[in-house]
Amino acid sequence: MPATNPVPPPDGPQWDDADTSIAMADIIEMLSKRLVVDVVMKMPVLVLPVSARSSTALVLALGGLSVVNELRVVPGVVSNDNLPAVMDCTNMNWTSVSISRYQWQ
């Protein structure tokens, strides 16, 4: 089976969506120097005293943080090198964040 070029010639045939998706994925893989992340972290609980002599504190439970991104080809936009533009879509999500006051006895 002969190797195929993922970039069609300017006057080449029209590709269907599946071929275009595969070609764009190949281009992103070959040319992109971006990093795809999928990170889930548990964040600390901070205890902040009101003052050095106080028995009252502010408690910040920062819960969890997740960061996920994906790379998408922007249709119809090309660079000066005639390569497709790639957009980095990042989603950051905080979970279970709480703030409370604590009084020591």
Q: What's the Cα radius of gyration?
A: 25 Å
* Pattern of helices and strands: HEEEEEE
Low-confidence stretches: 1-5, 8-13
How would you write the strand order of the largest sheet? 1-4-5
- What shape does the CA trace take? rod-shaped
Rounded mean pLDDT is 79
Return the structural class.
mainly beta
Largest beta-sheet details? 3 strands, antiparallel
Strand proportion, as a percent range, falls in over 45%
Total strand count, please? 6
| Range of helix content | 10-25%
The number of helical segments is 1
Distance between the termini: 78 Å
Could you describe the 3D structure shown?
The structure is a single chain. Strand 2 (45-49) and strand 3 (56-61) form a beta hairpin. 14% of the residues lie in helices and 47% in strands. It has a domain at 35-103. The protein has 105 residues and is mainly beta. Strands 1-4-5 form a 3-stranded antiparallel beta sheet. Strands 2-3-6 form a 3-stranded antiparallel beta sheet, with no helix packed on it. The chain contains 1 helix and 6 strands, in the order H-E-E-E-E-E-E. It has one helix at residues 17-31, and strands at residues 38-42, 45-49, 56-61, 64-78, 84-95, 98-103.
